[in-house]
Every structure is written in C-alpha cells, then in structure tokens.
Design goal:
Distance between the termini: 42 Å
CATH superfamily: Ferritin, core subunit, four-helix bundle
Helix content: 55-70%
Number of strands: 0
Strand content: under 5%
Order of helices and strands: HHHH
Oligomer: single chain
Number of domains: 1
Shape: elongated
Radius of gyration: 16 Å
CATH class: Mainly Alpha
CATH topology: Ferritin
Largest sheet: none
CATH architecture: Up-down Bundle
Length: about 160
C-alpha cells in the first residue's frame, strides 16, 4: 500500500481473533499431515493435502499482513496426534473436516469484509468439497490411503488421536 488512504480500516478485536483461530486451525492441519507423512510415508490423500494446507496458511497470512496484524507463531509441530494406521488418520480427518465446515460457518458470520469473506469461503470450499470427500473415500475403503488419481483431504479438531 502506497499511502495511508490505501490502508484498510483496522480489524475489530473479534475479526483479529477469528483470523487467528483460522490460522491456528490451518497450522494444526499442516502439522498433523506432516506427522502422518513422517509416520506412514508420502501417501494420498495426506501428501496432496499437506501442500494445500501450506497454501491455506499463505492465504491467511496475507490477510494478517494487509491489516498489519502480527502473524501468530505456529506452535503445532511436535504437539499433534499420532495414529495407529492410515485408516484411523483418515477417519479422524472426516470428523475434522466436518468440524472445519462448522468453524468457517461461524467465521463467515463474523465479518463483512469482502477480502476476508473470500478467503474464508475458499478455505471452507476446499475442506468441504475436496478434503472431506477424500478422507471419506480413504476411511470407507478400510485399507489405507486414497491411491486414486485425485488424492484430496484435510484435518481440523482431530478426535481419536488428538489430545
């Protein structure tokens, strides 16, 4: 932004808190997928989705920068659940994606800023239309990861292995 008039109006405290919540959720997902890959290897849907999570983090951090809000640190590495099997991780992913959709429903109601709404909607769409379905396919098979041509998936408030 080149001049003070180009700056957006400051975020409210609730908008800042919501952005931090969204970013923390994306950090958590990235850390979980990274751990699943470390435990079981580069398997779908996790190998594809860990890359998507990095893009989600980037989209949110861009908003922090635009509104001149300090970017919270990622505290999730080393603090995520471990799963006994890929199927267990995929089942947890299904639950987490459902909860992620609910999270974004709440976050969408907390602002009227078009740039933030666009990012939230895009992240919710990725979760609900792509990641959730990939985890369902993986969990339904009962034999591990999505080995099909389109590995997708996500995370969220993980149950089961999550502490």
């Amino acid at each position: 932004m080149d001049s003070p008039t180009d700056r957006p109006h400051p975020l409210s405290s609730s908008e800042r808190a919501d952005l931090a919540l969204a970013l923390d959720d994306e950090y958590m997902a990235h850390a979980i997928y990274t751990q699943v890959i470390a435990d079981f290897g580069e398997m779908r849907p996790f190998s594809n989705i860990v890359e998507a999570e990095a893009r989600h983090i980037e989209a949110l951090t861009t908003l922090f920068q635009r509104y001149e809000v300090p970017i919270p640190a990622d505290t999730w590495p080393g603090r995520v659940p471990r799963y006994e099997s890929l199927q267990e991780a995929c089942q947890a992913g299904v639950i987490a994606e459902v909860e992620n959709g609910e999270l974004y429903d709440r976050l969408l109601a907390g602002t009227n800023r078009s740039d933030i709404l666009t990012v939230y909607r895009n992240l919710q769409e990725a979760s609900q239309e792509r990641h959730l379905e990939a985890f369902r396919r993986c969990a339904d098979r009962g034999d591990g990861p999505d080995r099909g041509p389109r590995g997708l998936g996500h995370r969220r408030r993980w149950r089961g292995g999550r502490g």
